[in-house]
Structure to design on (106 residues):
């Protein structure tokens, strides 16, 4: 089974609705962290100001990536700068510590 890591950096106010909708499409786990940063529109902010955002990280089967990305995109989109990003990365190994399951070799 091939896994991917989906990382989304979005506006904090979208998190609750995104979590609810991701659970509805079968996402069984995720990590959500409050973060600060800036993107390509940093010139819109005063010097040294970091914009508050949320980072969602999900490990999912490759076959679920489009559906997960579509959910995040549909809810996070406002049409304004600062809507965020979604990045998808390959996962070489995934180990479940509690179950002591050996790595999955993708």
């Amino acid at each position: 089974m091939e896994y991917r890591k989906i990382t989304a950096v979005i506006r904090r106010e979208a998190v609750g609705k995104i979590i609810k909708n991701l659970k509805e499409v079968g996402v069984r786990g995720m990590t959500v962290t409050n973060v600060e940063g800036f993107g390509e529109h940093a010139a819109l902010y005063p010097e040294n100001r970091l914009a508050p955002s949320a980072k969602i990280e999900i490990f999912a089967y490759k076959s679920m990536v489009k559906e997960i990305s579509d959910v995040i995109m549909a809810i996070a989109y406002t049409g304004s700068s600062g809507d965020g990003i979604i990045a998808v990365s390959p996962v070489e190994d995934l180990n479940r510590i509690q179950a002591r399951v050996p790595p999955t070799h993708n």
